[in-house]
Write a structure and sequence with these properties.
Elements: E1 7-10, H1 15-28, H2 33-53, E2 58-64, E3 68-75, H3 82-85, H4 99-106, E4 109-115, E5 118-126, H5 141-144, E6 146-150, E7 155-159
Antiparallel strand pairs: 1-2, 2-3, 3-5, 4-5, 6-7
Helix pairs in contact: 1-2, 2-4
Length: 169
């Protein structure tokens, strides 16, 4: 029997929680350490952009397919455009504006779609063989996280047991 694990969580100002959950998911899906940190940084940048340039609310969905870990960042405002994503060169003298450049350069593939719910930014990272196939055992997810249902979004997400680490605009 094969079980798939999908992470769904609302975008909150607790960026530390989001990074921890994405790191946990990426590790569980078998990303090597370097790619795992690339994934966490890219998702952090995408979520920060939702706060700084978007609607300040949305949803993160992370899953794995046969060869990739995929994280979808949905911004309910829908303000992100293809022009933003494909903007030219990086202005190295600017104090901000590095987020999308970082995302494009860390991910193996970045796809932007506009849906009826908003802008959906999909970040794809190639993964190695699952840890179980390499003879390593995985720690059961139940021992690492506790699940609860968010009544507003109707989605299951993990609840972290440490104190908040929040985004400050």
């Amino acid at each position: 029997m094969i079980f798939e694990f999908e992470l769904r969580c609302p975008i909150t100002a607790d960026l530390g929680l989001i990074r921890d959950l994405v790191r946990l998911h990426g590790r569980y899906c078998g990303l090597p350490d370097r790619r795992l940190e690339d994934l966490v940084l890219a998702v952090n940048e995408a979520v920060t952009n939702v706060f700084d340039h978007g609607g300040q609310s949305g949803l993160i969905t992370a899953r794995a397919d046969a060869g990739h870990v995929v994280v979808d960042v949905l911004d309910f405002a829908g303000l992100l455009t293809h022009d933003h994503l494909t903007a030219g060169d990086l202005d190295r003298t600017a104090s901000h504006g590095y987020g999308l450049w970082v995302i494009r350069n860390l991910c193996d593939e970045v796809v932007l779609e506009h849906t009826e719910r908003g802008s959906l930014l999909s970040l794809r990272f190639r993964r190695r063989r699952p840890a179980a196939a390499e003879g390593r055992s995985r720690q059961p997810l139940e021992t690492m996280i506790a699940h609860r249902v968010d009544p507003e979004l109707g989605s299951t997400y993990a609840e972290h047991r440490n104190g908040p680490r929040t985004h400050h605009a």
